[in-house]
Amino acid sequence: MAAIDISGTVRERAARELRDRILTGSLPAGSRVDLDAITEEFATSRTPVREALLRLEESGLVKLFPKKGALVRPVVPQEIDDVLEARELIETHAAAKVWPRRKQLIETLSQRVDEMRACRKSGDAKSFLEADRAFHEAIVGAAGNEILAKLYNSLRDRQVRMGVPGIEMQPARMDKSITAHQEMIDALGGNSVKRFRELVVAHIDTAAADLRGSR
């Protein structure tokens, strides 16, 4: 029987918990993540906690300081531009890659849009954004490049941290997003990959405008 990697389990749990705190704002930008405090909280040694922080640093969420801990990175305007530009590159690439087998995607993407509609009806903004993210991750994942899929996931984490305040107070934005996603599905049922790519770019441009407007 293979030995259980306890340190690996703690590392994963610490990384997941700290990531969630950063994305939900309970660890706000500019706050310090104390290495000793986190080590005590997870009842472990410094090594797995330091490795967890290294993962978060690779994702662009924190800046690690040797032997001290980390600082939650503040969001700067350039980061918004960089994240959205990288998203566009990955998603337009994925749009072209999945086109030959696009019919297989339609059912999955339709389910995600149905979830978005249900969340819009119930006013559940958090689940709405999760369904939105799952829609795009399905397209990127179907492109078959695990490295790009992992990078895309980290980009969406960074975008969540940037936030788009008030979506729950602006139902019209949910309606606009649902319409945009349905148009992408409709384009997948057509014969123009150019049209599909244009819709992907337009949707990301809208997200960029919302993010810039919220700063």
Short description:
The protein has helices at residues 6-24, 35-41, 46-58, 77-98, 103-122, 125-142, 146-162, 171-188, 193-214; strands at 32-34, 62-65, 69-72. It is mainly alpha-helical and 215 residues long.
Q: Tell me the number of structural domains.
A: 2
Q: Work out the strand percent.
A: 5-15%
The first-level CATH class of the largest domain is given as: Mainly Alpha
Rg over C-alpha atoms, rounded to the nearest angstrom? 19 Å
Question: What does the model show?
Answer:
The chain has 2 domains: 6-72, Winged helix-like DNA-binding domain superfamily/Winged helix DNA-binding domain (Arc Repressor Mutant, subunit A), CATH 1.10.10; 77-214, Up-down Bundle (Four Helix Bundle (Hemerythrin (Met), subunit A)), CATH 1.20.120.530. Helix 5 (103-122) runs antiparallel to helix 6 (125-142). The radius of gyration is 19 Å and the shape is elongated. The chain has 9 helices and 3 strands. It is mainly alpha-helical and 215 residues long. The protein has helices at 6-24, 35-41, 46-58, 77-98, 103-122, 125-142, 146-162, 171-188, 193-214; strands at 32-34, 62-65, 69-72.
List keywords for this structure.
single chain, 215 residues, mainly alpha, Arc Repressor Mutant, subunit A, Four Helix Bundle (Hemerythrin (Met), subunit A), 2 domains
Q: What's the helix and strand layout?
A:
Elements: H1 6-24, E1 32-34, H2 35-41, H3 46-58, E2 62-65, E3 69-72, H4 77-98, H5 103-122, H6 125-142, H7 146-162, H8 171-188, H9 193-214
Antiparallel strand pairs: 1-3, 2-3
